[in-house]
Write a structure and sequence with these properties.
The chain is of the alpha/beta class. It has helices at about 20-30, 95-100, 115-125, 140-145, 160-165, 185, 190-200, 210-215, 260-275, 280-290, 315-325, 345-355, 365-370, 385-395, 420-435; strands at about 10-15, 35-40, 55, 70-75, 90, 105-110, 130-135, 155-160, 170-175, 205-210, 225-230, 235-240, 240-245, 245-250, 300-305, 305-310, 330-335, 360, 380-385, 405. Strands 7-8-6-9-10-11 form a six-stranded parallel beta sheet. The protein has a six-stranded mixed beta sheet with strand order 15-16-20-17-18-19. The protein has a five-stranded parallel beta sheet with strand order 3-2-1-4-5. The longest helix is centred in the last third of the chain and has 18 residues, at about 420-435.
Length: about 450
């Protein structure tokens, strides 16, 4: 890595959250030769006061972009109209990584469940003895993890659509799973979002793509290096076994991860691991012991014969619909709400009624939008912004042997800062009510019914 590549240049770090702070530490700790370094962010950064780094904050923080030669844009900052005149100066962490790292990189993206997919692949490679790094999206920022003086066997990198937009890369393996509407408030149009996701396949030596996705977007006409996976394809499952090249590998029941989409995740991981020469016994052992990630269809508590499931990561209608399919008609109570991202909730509300869900908790503001698509709903509805009230409602109104599902179909920024905080509060509220036995009685009539 050339630490003189920014010599004599004025550098701006645009967006000072986790990634922006990571960029600042990277530039300072590696003794880059630059002329000036500044932080640009809407929010005040008082802890930088008195520090020699320049700081521009407030509503006019983008007014002086013309003063900088390089603009290190954090992934979450959209390409707004103010940035368009300076696009040739914009650099991101992942772009810097691909420009400067020459080892083998596996990039993984999907609309949902990509973190579980990424984690399985990484765990198999670690268990096989490879020197492997895990970076990107919900993991540690790439510049915090990578030593550019060391060549790892593999870097496994989870990429969001934010990271993929306008990314130019050359890497070893790229993975693309499902695509459905997400982050519409950021990308503007679904076509822009799809373009960002498909960008992951460009300039990869090998591409692994879900068969359905490859067919839907006619990817076989564009790429000659695609290997597809899932039922009846090269890596798949059939007759109770994971299959590769028509050979039975091990039973599908030999896994801790439940639900159909995780079986797809495992099929992908098997395909990649076999491509990289990992022995089947290591793959099998890893799959048998991999427990998954928090807040992803996580069965967290059973009390009074009621099962509580934390699927806080599901922040689109499509992912919540997949969660409902996993349980079929065992869901009795569902929590729905969040930030409005222009989603179409009609099919989800149809499924809620088709699956005979009896109780709904709506949080603002999306809850009010979703409720409009309920037709002749006869069950109970609670409107609230308090998790403890929502959980108490579920305890009282969920039948035995049924499920209370937290799977909100929208992000939760209107109430909590992220899905992790939402899921953790869900778990804490369940534990508190169960241990303290503070449940209200049904006859207390504290629930608001849909009129």
């Amino acid at each position: 890595m050339d630490t003189k590549q920014f010599e004599g240049k004025n550098i701006a770090i645009l967006g000072f959250w986790l990634e922006g702070k990571s960029t600042l530490n990277f530039l300072l700790n590696n003794n880059f030769a630059f002329k000036k370094l500044s932080v640009l962010d809407m929010k005040d950064q008082p802890w930088l006061e008195g520090f020699w780094v320049g700081v521009e904050t407030g509503e006019h923080y983008l007014e002086h972009l013309n003063q900088f030669d390089v603009i290190f844009k954090s992934a979450g900052v959209p390409y707004s109209n103010e940035l368009k005149p300076f696009e040739d100066r914009i650099l991101t962490q992942v772009q810097f990584f691909f420009d400067n790292y020459k080892g083998k990189v596996i990039t993984i993206t999907a609309s949902k469940w990509k973190s579980t997919m990424t984690s399985i692949v990484y765990t198999i490679l670690k268990n096989a003895g490879f020197n492997t790094k895990l970076v990107g999206n919900i993991w540690t920022p790439v510049l915090d993890e990578i030593d550019f003086n060391e060549e790892y066997d593999y870097v496994v990198c989870e990429l969001s659509s934010y990271m993929l937009e306008r990314l130019n890369k050359k890497n070893y393996i790229s993975v693309l799973w499902n695509i459905f509407p997400e982050h519409m408030d950021w990308h503007g149009w679904f076509e822009n979002y799809v373009h960002a996701k498909l960008n992951n396949l460009k300039w990869a030596e090998y591409n692994f793509v879900l068969q359905k996705t490859a067919e839907e977007y006619e990817l076989f006409d564009q790429y000659d290096n695609i290997e597809t996976y899932w039922i009846w394809w090269k890596t798949s499952r059939a007759n109770g076994y994971f299959i590769h090249d028509n050979q039975e590998l091990f039973p599908t029941e030999d896994k801790l991860l439940i639900w159909e989409h995780n079986t797809q995740n495992i099929s992908l991981a098997i395909a990649i691991a076999l491509k990289l020469g990992v022995p089947i016994d290591i793959i099998h052992e890893t799959v048998k012991n991999f427990r998954g990630l928090p807040h992803r269809l996580e069965l967290v508590w059973e009390y009074n014969w009621i099962t509580f499931c934390d699927d806080a990561i599901s922040t689109t209608p499509e992912s919540t619909m997949e969660a409902l399919k996993s349980f079929w008609k065992r869901v009795w109570t569902i929590f729905l709400w969040g930030t409005n991202r222009w989603y179409d909730f009609r099919k989800l509300m149809e499924m809620v009624q088709e699956y005979e869900i009896q109780n709904i908790v709506f949080f603002p503001p999306s809850g009010n939008i979703m409720a409009k698509f309920l037709n002749n709903f006869k069950g109970k509805i609670l409107y609230t912004d308090r998790m403890e009230d929502a959980v108490a409602f579920a305890f009282v109104n969920t039948e035995k042997d049924k499920i209370c599902l937290l799977s909100t179909a929208s992000p939760s920024y209107s109430v909590w800062k992220n899905f992790e905080e939402k899921g953790d509060l869900f778990k804490a509220s369940i534990k508190k009510i169960a241990e303290e036995n503070t449940l209200p009685k049904k006859e207390d009539n504290i629930w608001q019914l849909l009129e």
